[in-house]
Amino acid sequence: MPxxxxxQKFIERTLANYFKAGGVEPIILVCSKPHEQYNMMxxxxxxxxxxxxxxxxxxxxxxxxxxxxxxxxxxxxMFAASQRMPETIIRVLTAEVAQAQTLLEQLSLNKSTIExxxxxxxxxxxxxxxxxxxxxRLVTCRAISVxxxxxxxxxxxxxxxxxxxxxxCQRGRRLVR
Length: 177
What we know:
By secondary structure, the chain is α/β, with parallel strands linked by helices. It contains five helices and eight strands; from the N terminus they run αβαβαβαβββαββ. The chain folds into two domains: 4-124, Rossmann fold (3-Layer(aba) Sandwich), CATH 3.40.50; 137-176, no CATH class.
């Protein structure tokens, strides 16, 4: 089983290759291996820009990986869940997604940018898909520091010292808007 870091790197490479091939508006759909039949049902009902990422269990990757997918160009991260999954998995995933949605709302972003897709709900119609690019990307860093870029709606924070502080550049990349 890959580590969360390996899964995060895999998602980053997948998105980079998707963009290189001319893809637009990618949506990451995190699927669990034990529920492959549900995953196939979801993919048949969703558009081609939905990219499946298979993991052992849905909560096996954390919020850092979800936000890394958004920073690397995904417009949305969804989890292919089923009401038939073990209650503990649904409970843990629901709690973690709620935390992520709180962060998204505090950043003035649509909370559905990270969402649980209950596959049974596809019978009623397609889910809400977020296709608007967040405008965040990681790019090669030539300087020795990094700037934290905020969505336009949060420009008022740029005057505070804690936000304007430079952070060390990790592995030659920085966040840009």
